[in-house]
Design a protein that fits this description.
With 440 residues, the chain is mainly beta. 9% of the residues lie in helices and 35% in strands.
């Protein structure tokens, strides 16, 4: 407790000092949301705006607040940094209990130590459990009564995909394949390497997600950048800030789309069949820039990073500029608000929720560090019409941030279970939340 007090005071002092040299938002989060977000001029300060919500976990008896008409309960508690959810065909739920891998190239020196302390303050500085846990609700009461260690000894795992009898897991440095039998509560066989993914001693955006194409022939893997705007050099960004396509029959891999600073959520729309992703945009241009976004992903498409954002809005910090690439930059489909850290993505195809939810997207927003006041820290719903976003986002789960800006929880992965309920992974609250229509 004494060490936490000292470290907490130090972290608060750093945050206060940096925030004092920063700025505050002049626009609402809503202004930076939707198909045509407001993009004010960049704001540059001597130090970046830093507002880090202290991760405290949920006080006894507290839970997120569901929007009117919906209700929430804890599907499983006392997990260890749950980040991603995958629902198997028999309705067993796999949870990736995971965190960043060791990064000696990042945490060396005073600045590295400050960054490490900031991560710990935000609840992200834990040692990675490196496992998948299986949760089972056999009696269908909305609470998992059994759990088992399904896979262990992984390397900061995140994305999961089942294709036939093969379970694919995205570690931070590559995709591995395991044999899967329906109903199994553990896999003990060694994984077979499928494809390498960029990693290394500096691996800032370490999360690697995967999704299988509807026909099961291709895996799509998301890989974030190693920097904010390429300041470490573009040579080491090769293969990063991109989505890769891995042909499963041949094992060959190719770049599918690029210029995506940190794509995390991946999902195919149930009606159009198009691939969509949630992307975390760049920092240090002010509290109002740049909105994270949800977009369909075009093959061979370039989305601007690091040279521009939202199409041809040039980032003058990036040297040398690339006007040739900026001319080709695709404008994202839908802004999700500045610095919201929109990570999880799931399209709704069930029948449990009201009809208006069908075909829309649930998005887990992990929450900001580079905005004053904070943004995100909630789960939102983006309505779709004819396969494209339509209308303003709706808050589904809120209350993750206290009135004095303490983080009770931080939502990450979202998934629809076999009954049509929404599952939400909370990596600070160490809970999987389950959202259903409220009893009438």
């Amino acid at each position: 407790m004494h060490n936490r007090l000292i470290a907490g005071s130090f972290a608060a002092l750093i945050c206060f000092a940096l925030a004092g040299c920063g700025e505050e938002a002049t626009l609402s989060v809503e202004a930076g949301t939707g198909p045509e977000p407001e993009l004010p001029p960049p704001v540059r300060t001597m130090f970046p705006t830093v507002v880090i919500a202290e991760a405290t976990g949920w006080p006894h008896g507290k839970a997120p607040k569901a929007v009117d008409g919906l209700a929430v309960n804890a599907f499983a508690s006392n997990l260890n940094h749950p980040r991603m959810i995958y629902v198997l065909p028999n309705d067993d739920v796999l949870v990736a209990e995971t965190a960043a891998p060791p990064q000696p190239g990042l945490t060396d020196g005073i600045l590295g130590r400050v960054m490490k302390l900031g991560m710990w303050w935000a609840g992200a500085g834990v040692a990675s459990p490196n496992r998948l846990t299986l949760l089972r609700d056999a009696d269908g009461d909305g609470v998992a009564e059994t759990r088992s260690e399904f896979l262990s000894g992984l390397n900061s795992p995140f994305g999961m995909a089942l294709v036939g009898n093969s379970l694919y897991v995205a570690n931070t440095d590559g995709i591995v394949r395991f044999p899967y039998t329906s109903g199994a509560t553990q896999i003990t066989e060694k994984g077979q390497p499928v494809a390498e993914l960029p990693a290394g001693p500096i691996n800032i955006h370490w999360v690697k997600n995967i999704v299988a194409s509807p026909d099961g022939a291709t895996l799509y893997a998301s890989v974030g950048s190693i920097s904010n705007i390429g300041e470490r050099g573009m040579d080491i960004e090769e293969g990063r800030a991109a989505i890769h396509a891995i042909d499963l029959p041949s094992g060959t891999s190719r770049l599918f789309a690029s210029g995506l600073r940190n794509p995390v959520g991946l999902a195919f729309h149930p009606d159009s069949g198009k691939l969509w992703t949630t992307v975390n945009e760049r920092d240090e241009l002010g509290s109002d820039l740049v909105p994270d976004y949800l977009t369909s992903v075009k093959e061979n498409g370039f989305y601007g990073w690091p040279y521009s954002y939202y199409g041809d809005h040039v980032d003058a910090r990036v040297k040398p500029p690339r006007p040739d690439l900026v001319k080709t930059a695709i404008v994202p489909d839908y802004a999700l608000g500045p610095h919201t850290a929109s990570l999880g993505l799931a399209f709704y195809s069930g029948a449990l929720f009201p009809e208006r939810y069908r075909g829309g997207a649930f998005v887990g927003q992990h929450g900001s560090w580079n905005r004053s006041p904070p943004s995100g820290y909630k789960v939102v719903f983006v309505p779709f019409q004819n396969g494209t976003p339509s209308g303003t986002p709706e808050d589904i789960l809120t209350g993750f941030l206290s009135k004095d800006d303490k983080a009770y929880g931080r939502p990450v992965g979202v998934a629809e279970d076999g009954t049509g309920a929404l599952l939400v992974a909370d990596d600070v609250g160490n809970t999987i939340w389950r959202v259903v229509p409220a009893a009438q």
